[in-house]
Amino acid sequence: SQQGEEDPQALSIQEGENATMNCSYKTSINNLQWYRQNSGRGLVHLILIRSNEREKHSGRLRVTLDTSKKSSSLLITASRAADTASYFCRAGNMLTFGGGTRLMVKP
Amino acid sequence: GAGVSQSPSNKVTEKGKDVELRCDPISGHTALYWYRQSLGQGLEFLIYFQGNSAPDKSGLPSDRFSAERTGGSVSTLTIQRTQQEDSAVYLCASRGGGAEKLFFGSGTQLSVL
């Protein structure tokens, strides 16, 4: 069974708005990673949060991790058209990814 | 190299032909992964190599698919007797020992006519 599942499946917002996407997983992990994929090609690592951290920031990205609920969220603030992409989470060392969240930011 | 390199970037083949897809991981990375992604879909895990251990082949969809990793570096994914449903982007990723982050190549777009 897949470790990470993202929701929503798709999200459409206006430029300047914030985008929030969520990831749920099933077993204990020591870290969770978020990746971005543009144009159906290679994924790029965005940010990693460890199990002993509740929140982490990187530029316009804010990630939270709730190990009691086995969930994480990725917040992109002040979104830009260039943020349009698919976003995936990876829980621990899992081999599988979820279906991702397809984010569209309209200019 | 500086990143994970995959070749070819695009491959068009006829149904029934065999294809080989190549992945050059980041030098020194002990872990190597292959994924498949159909249009508009998520990533489908295919196979995982870790050092000298036996690969995890649990994601290979049929016996037409095989992969090898020579010398702990370059990997080749082979699809025999290709079918139209094999059309997808094939992604390779590598990871350094003890690290968590995956580094992906740009993928090979396979089209089976």
CATH architecture of chain A: Sandwich
**Percent of sequence in beta strands of chain A:** over 45%
- The residue-averaged pLDDT of chain A reads 93
Head-to-tail CA distance between termini of chain A? 38 Å
Number of strands of chain B: 10
Number of strands of chain A: 10
Taken together, the total number of domains of chain B comes to 1
Share in helix of chain A:
under 10%
The CATH topology of chain A: Immunoglobulin-like
What's the CATH topology name of chain B?
Immunoglobulin-like
Question: Which sequence of SSEs, written as H and E, runs from N to C of chain B?
Answer: EEEEEEEEEE
Tell me, rounded to a whole number, the average pLDDT of chain B. Answer: 95
Show the largest interface: A-B, 19 and 23 residues
Overall geometric form of chain B: globular
Write the topology of this structure:
The complex is a heterodimer of chains A (107) and B (113).
Chain A: E1 5-7, E2 10-14, E3 19-24, E4 31-37, E5 43-50, E6 55-58, E7 61-66, E8 71-76, E9 85-91, E10 101-106
Parallel strand pairs in A: 2-10
Antiparallel strand pairs in A: 1-3, 3-8, 4-5, 4-9, 6-7, 7-8, 9-10
Chain B: E1 5-7, E2 10-13, E3 19-24, E4 31-37, E5 44-50, E6 65-69, E7 75-79, E8 88-95, E9 103-104, E10 108-112
Parallel strand pairs in B: 2-10
Antiparallel strand pairs in B: 1-3, 3-7, 4-5, 4-8, 6-7, 8-9, 8-10
Describe the structure.
The complex is a heterodimer of chains A (107) and B (113). By secondary structure, chain A is mainly beta. Helices cover 0% and strands 54% of the residues of chain A. Chain A has one domain (5-95): Immunoglobulins (Immunoglobulin-like). Chain A contains no helices and 10 strands. Chain A starts with a strand and ends with a strand. Chain B is an all-beta fold. Helix content of chain B is 0%, strand content 46%. Chain B has strands spanning 5-7, 10-13, 19-24, 31-37, 44-50, 65-69, 75-79, 88-95, 103-104, 108-112. The mean pLDDT of chain B is 95. Chain A binds chain B through residues 31, 33, 35, 40-45, 48, 88, 90, 93, 95-100, and chain B through 4, 33, 35, 37, 39, 41-43, 45, 48, 56, 59, 89, 91, 93, 100-107.
